[in-house]
C-alpha cells in the first residue's frame, strides 16, 4: 500500500499483510478501532450522543441525528 492511498480503517485491518509494514498498519488500525469502540460505548453509557460518519457524509448525518434527537424530545 502506498502512503498516499486513501484506505479505510476496516480495509486496513482486513487486508492480508504482504510485508512487515502492512502487518504493522493492520495491527495499529485494529487497536485503534478497538479503542474507538470502547470510547464510543463509554460515552453512550454516559448519555453522550455519538455520531460516526465519513467526512463526506458528515453534514447530512449530523442534520439527521439532530432531527432524530429533537423529535424524541431530548433537547
Please, could you describe this protein's structure?
By secondary structure, the chain is mainly α. 61% of the residues lie in helices and 0% in strands.
Which stretches are low in confidence, meaning pLDDT under 50 for 5 or more residues running?
1-6
Average of the residue pLDDT scores? 87
Distance between the termini: 45 Å
| Strand count | 0
If helices are DSSP runs of H or I spanning 4 or more residues, what is the number of helices?
3
- Measured by DSSP, the beta-strand proportion falls in under 5%
Basic shape: elongated
Structurally, the number of domains stands at: 1
What descriptive keywords fit this protein?
mainly alpha, disordered N terminus, 3 helices, 75 residues, 61% helix, elongated
Amino acid at each position: 500500500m502506498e502512503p498516499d492511498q486513501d484506505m479505510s480503517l476496516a480495509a486496513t485491518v482486513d487486508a492480508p499483510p504482504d510485508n512487515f509494514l502492512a502487518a504493522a498498519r493492520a495491527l495499529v488500525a485494529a487497536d485503534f478501532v478497538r479503542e474507538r469502540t470502547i470510547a464510543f460505548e463509554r460515552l453512550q453509557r454516559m448519555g453522550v450522543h455519538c455520531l460516526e460518519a465519513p467526512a463526506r457524509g458528515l453534514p447530512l448525518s449530523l442534520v439527521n441525528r439532530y432531527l432524530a434527537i429533537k423529535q424524541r424530545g431530548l433537547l
